[in-house]
Amino acid sequence: QVQLVESGGGLAQPGGSLRLSCAASGFTLGSYAMSWARQAPGKGLEWVSGISREGTNTYYADSVKGRFTISRDNAKNTLYLQMNSLKPEDTALYYCAKGSANKGELDFWGQGTQVTVSS
Question: For residues 86 and 105, what is the distance between their CA atoms, to the nearest angstrom?
Answer without folding.
Answer: 27
